[in-house]
């Protein structure tokens, strides 16, 4: 019972800390955009794109440690644990130095080409990448020892520190104050990890190369999957950088910010679901015997997530018009990208199923297909149709729809290849999306806001929210009838209260 209580305590603390951190990070994002002009935010996002890819430079070593260390702790092979910890630590240091040299050379070249601001940003990214790699490494070390309280406290402390230091330095020094604030936040997190983890780490230059190759074999496929998904999520940003200007990218950051935080909501819940799914598969040894565990969570997110997105779309104009008026051109793309993100909320369960069946390669292939569709679609809607950032949002949403449909269709084919069963299943999945879109369009037509009176606009948003809830009740009733989700939540809550 002690272990069970600790598990639930850690799970609740971990989830709560992430939700709390996301709220603070969202506030920080809004505050920073209030200070910086769209062109500066565009440059910041261009620099962050380099950081996003550079932090994947460990080639899967950290991912392999995330799998190997818990197993070795379970077998009590502490000598091997110590060896892998030192390999991981040394590898992170060496890779950080290598990436820093590459970025430093790139910054010099870009200075000669005249892009001084971007070149200076790359100089800061050198430090961000090194600190982020070490933070990721320490996260894995603590997760392997089930020190979720350490990870949770780190998440909260960094978020609190972030909101203060980023706002202060951005006010004082603008864009580069924001970049250096990111460095300080990563540094503070690393200091806490170092003091709280109490890991005896040693830098080694002599690597057992057979062990490195073994770790790469484990982690590299995970790295490839993450890299491809990262590219799929950044197709629009890359094409805006290529075809438009930095101010346009700055406007588009409203859509990116809204989409990122929206998609994190289902990911937090899926983090609880996937261990149970794998455990059930291990017990039953048949995906057909756990079909309900695949179908029900998928249906729940297919019906509830568009409703959540609908509320975000209703509230977004109020936030932008009165707190970030300089970013008004980003509202329409944000609507579209949020709707497109509804499809990404459905990709987790098919991914878990394919991983359980050791068919990750098909996930990679489908991801590559999504990327190959995303780039030309963005080019067509941005350049040929002259739709700018609205075109980027439309193209990216279509890409998400096609990617999700391909992935879900392939995963569902392991249950049935009957075409009519597939059509029925996808109708169930996508009907709530269409329902929510129709409701939002109807509310937009019949209930208009003035856009220059805060009290009136708050009343309009409230009124739209009431009608939106009423219109979505049939969706909730249907999905509850299919999955009993509300009953399960109620039972879990009652049992939880009883256990207290």
Number of domains: 2
Global Rg: 24 Å
Tell me the total number of β-strands.
0
State the end-to-end CA separation: 13 Å
Succession of helices and strands: HHHHHHHHHHHHHHHHH
Mean pLDDT: 88
| Biggest sheet overview | none
Low-confidence stretches: none
Structural class by sheet pairing and helices: mainly alpha
The number of distinct helices, counting runs of at least 4 residues, comes to: 17
Name the shape in a single word: globular
Helix content: over 70%
The proportion of strand residues reads under 5%
Question: Brief description of this entry?
Answer:
By secondary structure, this protein is mostly helical. 86% of the residues lie in helices and 0% in strands.
Tell me what the structure shows:
The protein is built from 17 helices and no strands. With about 500 residues, the protein is mostly helical. It has two domains: about 210 residues, no CATH class; about 270 residues, no CATH class.
What are the defining features of this structure?
500 residues; mainly alpha; 17 helices
Helix/strand layout:
Layout: H1 2-35, H2 38-54, H3 61-75, H4 78-112, H5 116-144, H6 148-173, H7 175-197, H8 209-243, H9 246-284, H10 291-323, H11 331-344, H12 348-356, H13 360-384, H14 388-412, H15 419-446, H16 454-483, H17 485-499
